[in-house]
Write the structure tokens for this entry.
Amino acid sequence: MNRLQLIKDHILSRERNMAMPATQPSPLTTHVLNIAKGVPGANMTISLYRLDPVSSVWNELTTRLTNDDGRCLCLITKETFIAGVYKMHFETEKYWNALGEISFYPFVEVVFTVTDASQKYHVPLLLSRFSYSTYRGS
Amino acid sequence: MGPLNNSSPLTTHVLNTGDGLPAVRMAISLHRLDPQMTLWNLITVGSTNEDGRCPGLITSDAFTPGTYKMRFETGQYWESLEQGSFYPYVEIVFTITDADQKFHLPLLLSRYSYSTYRGS
């Protein structure tokens, strides 16, 4: 096989891979930012729950740790992401304690409604020891 | 204003930042965590006044160190304005170590965002 053919095959293979990614990105994402220090909130434990509409019980879907960029990859798959009421639980006190600081909030829970599960939802948390904010982002 | 309304060591202020107005007639409840039972005990139920405030949340005697939760019925509030919202309610959980201090916990709220902080 000549070199040109090798290169063409490599490009076509890459295009095929791009068209069919091995893992689809999570339709639900978060980003924790430590606004007191101006750094991402790394190594924070986050749990995702969905409310069972019949029993009103919170079912835990996943627990993950934020990475060095304060993000949590693979929170949920497209297939599992259905319309409903979700809760993201951020272990903020443990996060501050690991930095040798106390926190006013033992944890932060953000409860939100997903009406259209075909959309993407970005739920960040901007956090200091005595304040936090969240919004629906993109 | 009666002395009881002025003396709550814990206060809040809810602001509708989407409209630039106080959030009026929002139902709020205050709970304290019972450490033995891991249950939330309801302390007060109230609703915000014309200024978005809720005086008389708790008395100084009842305000002891512990873990508290303030729950804001934000979904109901937006429904009463015939608008949808991302959050069915907002709960803020906080720790009181020194109950001799005053604690002001505002909620700045829009249909798709909220923030809170320890104020004065």
In short: The interface with chain B takes residues 85, 93, 103-113, 126, 128, 130-136 of chain A (CB under 8 Å). The two ends of chain A are 46 Å apart (CA to CA).
